[in-house]
Amino acid sequence: MQRLLLGLIFLLAIACVNKQESSSISIPTNVIPQSDGTVSMRWDTANLPLSMKVSDSFSATASQAIESMKLQWNQSGAAATFFSPNTATTTNKNFASLDTFFDSELGIYWIENWYSEIGSSALAVTQFFAARRNVGTPNEYMEIVHADILFNADFNFNTSGAMGSYDLPSVALHELGHVLGLKHESTTSSIMYPYIGSGVIHRALQDIDKTNIAELYGTSQGNVGMTISIEALETVPAEEGAMVRGIIEILPNDEEKVTFLPTKFHLPQKMKHNH
Ligand SMILES: [Zn+2]
Q1: How far is the CA of 269 from the centre of ligand 1 (A)?
Q2: 74 with 81: CB under 8 angstroms?
Q3: Ligand 1: distance of its center to the CA of 27 in Å?
Q4: How far is the centre of ligand 1, averaged over its atoms, from the C-alpha of 29 (Å)?
Q5: Fewer CB in a 10 Å sphere around the end CB: N or C, the chain?
Q6: How close is the Cα of 172 to the center of ligand 1, in Å?
Q7: How far is residue 267 from each of residues 232, 237, 264, measured CA to CA in Å?
């Protein structure tokens, strides 16, 4: 119950930041955020490309379609290769607890038993874990250190674009954008637009998506990535490596939703990645 309450408080805090202009936000002394009162999230480029494995619950056709979506991001024109192509498949995971996904593999999973913690109307979510870096300096950011994509098996997906079900590659392309740290875009042409209808195919990055990802991993990060509000960050210890768990959802035709939750994990040192 306490955890649920915290989640609700974070949601309210985030909604607040989205609606208000930065002038009214008071900034704690231990955080020096972006000018809009948030702290940005992204991977350390030293940990790219990501080895994001597709679970063995997906058909060969679906798996190949997801690989094509990884290539879309790799060929975005940004100065980075984001995903290793054609990684081996991995055993599907449907852990009892969402925290357990913080393991040694980045994966794309097919979830038969959806999580009560996540809204039942979410087609898919990206769950990520991020650690505080450069705490209290102008370079403070949240380093994404782990992310998984969870597809909600309560919905019908296909790879043919047929009406009556959702286009799996399109949803994968969107979620892979979140894995990299992109937030939602209000421009309807963007692949990061937070809604998709059944039978809609949206499998190609648009110019705005290419611009945004180049900016997020360029020399000056614009306001294109996921951020955490100061209010939410205040609940995370002001220590190097203190972590937060976040869930960002794509909904069939509903509100955008981003939830930050505390996690038991803490990275005392700079993350050394094997994937
Ligand atoms: Zn989304």
Answers
A1: 30
A2: yes
A3: 27
A4: 31
A5: N
A6: 10
A7: 19, 12, 10
**pLDDT tens-place string over residues 55-68:** 999 999 999 999 99
Say how many Å lie between the CA of residue 251 and the centre of ligand 1.
8
Q: Are 260 and 245 in contact (CB under 8 A)?
A: yes
Write down the domain spans for the chain. Answer: 3-15+27-260
Task: Say what the pTM is.
Answer: 0.82
Classified as helix, coil or strand, 135 is coil
Closest CA to 143 of 42, 267, 248: 42
Centre of ligand 1 from the C-alpha of residue 246, in Å: 12
Closest CA to 114 of 104, 106, 124, 105: 124
Across residues 257-272, what is the average pLDDT? 61
* Short-list 253, 197, 246, CA closest to 225: 246
Bigger pLDDT: 261 or 13? 261
Query: What tokens appear for 247 in the block?
Result: 């869930």
DSSP state letters, 99-125: GGG-SS-EEEEEESS--TTS-TT-SEE
CATH superfamily of 3-15+27-260: Collagenase (Catalytic Domain) (3.40.390.10)
